[in-house]
Amino acid sequence: MRIIHTSDWHLGHTLHEVSREKEQQSFLDWLLDTIGEHLADALLICGDIFDSANPPASAQRLWYGFLAGARRRFPRLAIVAMGGNHDSAARLDAPDPVLGEFGIRVVGGVPYGEDGTVLWDQLVIPLHDAGGAVSAWIAAVPYLRPADLPPVPEGEGDPLVEGVRRFYVQAIAAASRHRQPGQPLIVTGHCYMTGGTLSELSERKILGGNQHALPADLFGEGVAYGALGHLHLPQTVGGRPHIRYSGAPIPLSLGEADYPSQVVLVELHGEACTAVQPIRVPRTVEMLRIPARGALPLDELLPLLVVLPESNGNDIATAPYLEVSVALDRPDPSLRQRLAAVLAGKAIRLMKITPVYPGSAGPLASAAPERSLRDFTPEEVFVQRYRSTYDDDPPPELLAAFHTLVEDVTREVTP
Length: 415
Hints:
The protein has 9 helices and 18 strands. The strands form 4 sheets. The chain has a 6-stranded mixed beta sheet. The protein has a 6-stranded mixed beta sheet with strand order 7-8-9-10-12-11, with helices on one face. It folds into 3 domains: 2-280, Purple Acid Phosphatase, chain A, domain 2 (4-Layer Sandwich), CATH 3.60.21.10; 296-368; 377-410, no CATH class. The chain is an alpha/beta fold. The chain has helices at residues 21-37, 57-73, 89-93, 96-99, 159-178, 298-306, 335-343, 378-390, 396-410, and strands spanning 2-6, 14-15, 18-19, 42-46, 78-82, 104-107, 124-128, 134-139, 185-190, 225-229, 235-237, 240-245, 262-269, 272-280, 287-290, 296-297, 321-327, 349-356.
């Protein structure tokens, strides 16, 4: 069986107020071709399908257009999608009666019965081979919120980490009750695992922050493949090649310009994962940094901008994004105008100007770039405010409560 693992599409995403719709449409078109080229039996989408809980209509058109195109071209392709921390679980789950009729399974959030208990069997999804026989099982775990976790008695470990561990134990047990000898078990997750590399500008520190990173042994030894989402940099977990993040298919911030955007082709034989092949996603829009590292004085920077190629009437929507870092002695109110004048008519889009000032405690090269308020995460603002008031870091339980509040207020509540 061949499976394509992907995540973190963030449909509806904008970069400094510039729509990424064309880039995302190009990726989705490429993904359909890739499914056909590699004769994939299943597609797993591990969370953050949308960039926000209330995505624009254009983003929803991309999503449903992709599903319709996939079903037309590949009638037997299994499609399984899970919700992420950016998604509205209720919004993803709402069309399930329709999508289910077309063999598309979406697990937006943890399913509950009328008595408030988890419906474990609804998280268990069979995958069929070309002949229609069940050849693998998925424990399809979406993003877990603190309210989804079972209680952990005091003294038995961190309530968040141990709560997630116990949730996975039950989800895997539910899938194991269905699995027959020779059938592999796949487990999904949208979470932050120990040792993972975050993109600070575009990824939220979920589940109470990095101090609640989940252990690498979370999935146990009987799992053939662990398909993860949330971290945008493709990476394995704990040195285990069969437990990995696929990464985001397009860079979602200028800081991700060097990420190797990809999807992952997974081959399963018997109960084991026998091959994992990253497949690079072609970029339709490049990201440039000038200079590539550090910052330059304006008189050294401008000659590098002058030689950039002219637009020659080409479509500006495919022109590269540009970030420039300028070494300044003092603020220069005319900086943007001077840069814009040099870049006029160039095949480039100036997205960000990063001024770097000499620090009093070290040389210019070690000075950190200025950050605007939009560059700070809610956690950073909260922590800095707490420190300024109490001259100490917030306790872990308060920070966990803050993250729960942030998730609540940034998520649309859908009846």
